[in-house]
Amino acid sequence: MMKINTQSGLKLAAITLLSVVALTGCSLSKGGKVLGTEEIKTKAESFINDNLMQGENKATVKEVVDDGDLYKVVVEISGGQQIDSYMTKDGTKFMPQAMNIEEMSKEAGNQKAQEDTASKQAKENLPKQAKPNVELFVMSHCPYGTQIEKGIIPVIEALGSKIDFSLKFCDYAMHGEVELKEQLKQTCIAKEQKDKLLPYLKCFLKSEKSDECLKEAKVDSGKMNACITKTDNEFKVMKGFADKTTWVNGRYPAFNVFAKDNEKYGVKGSPSLVVNGQEISSGRDSKSLLSTICSGFDNQPEECKKELSSTPPAPGFGEGAGSDSAAECGS
Fold it and tell me: Do residues 169 and 70 share a domain?
């Protein structure tokens, strides 16, 4: 076992040991011998010093208190810091620190309430238009970019011509040459074969197999390749990739096709959602994205009442469910 000599380390060990108890289905001393407080003190102190502390530091058990099904063990470590730990009454399981479920649930509830209030206010302050302009900035291979793309596609399909949607890309790429080439490809599909963009994306986000998805979406490859050559010549995407002196912060190749829009909105990473010229945060599930985008209407159409999934898609390529988060790809 790794030895630890800090309070934070003891907390990490707590999580590990608590997980082991849960995963192995161990119960808390039901039917076992109940040890006295002095036995528990000796046993806990020996275990902590032999397994959780480095030799140069020593922990002392200051007090053992009966606390329902467990003993609360007050441990003092270097610097006089005290930690309330717990041990089963048969002395077989030690938990360096307990989590107060009620307090943590209350804190989580308060945080969610604050986030909901901030989200509501942001939607109310969003500029309104008869036909909202929706711009989504991503990196084609950023897992959080693909996550929001999977979430927004049903919204675009639901609102159809009621909105102006544009898929755009950050002005630097974090996922190498493959990302630069894919972004040129998607830029040209969106520009010259817009009706093929969503079918292509739905396939690509699921499989990451571009060639197969081009065929499935019936993209005119000749037309697309001519556009790619023209766009690459104009913005020197691949030339910049070959010249590392042009890379952003010396780390990432530039993708300047939408550089002006990135600068205009202050886009920093993938994903970034802009509605009616204003960047706004949103959950990445389809229901949340529909609500966010519909807040940009002067008068919301019936389509805004459509029931869409409230389950966030999984980050990255493929199918499945994920969790909602504000994670992004950014330098």
Answer: no
Q: What is the CATH number of the domain that holds 295?
A: 3.40.30.10
Radius of gyration of the chain (CA): 28
Most confident segment among 59-73, 90-104, 195-209: 195-209
Q: Do strands 82-88 and 70-76 pair parallel, antiparallel, or not at all (unpaired)?
A: antiparallel
**Within this chain, do residues 190 and 309 fall inside the same structural domain, yes or no?**
yes
Q: What is the pLDDT of residue 57?
A: 76
Residue with tokens 């790809």, as numbered in its chain:
329
Question: Do residues 180 and 317 both lie within one domain?
Answer: yes
Q: Who contacts 177 (Cβ-Cβ below 8 Å, separation ≥6)?
A: 238, 241, 253
How many structural domains are present in the chain?
2
The tens digit of pLDDT for each residue in 306-330 reads 999 999 999 999 999 998 888 999 9
Give me the mean pLDDT over the 177-195 stretch: 98
Instruction: Please classify residue 302 by burial: count the beta carbons closer than 10 Å to its beta carbon, then call 0-12 exposed, 13-18 middle and 19+ buried.
Output: exposed
- Tell me the H-state helices in 220-258: 221-235, 237-242
pTM: 0.69
Q: Confidence band (pLDDT; 50, 70, 90) for 118?
A: low
Alpha helices for 29-159 (secondary structure H): 37-51, 101-125, 143-159
Give the separation between CA 132 and CA 165, rounded to whole angstroms.
8
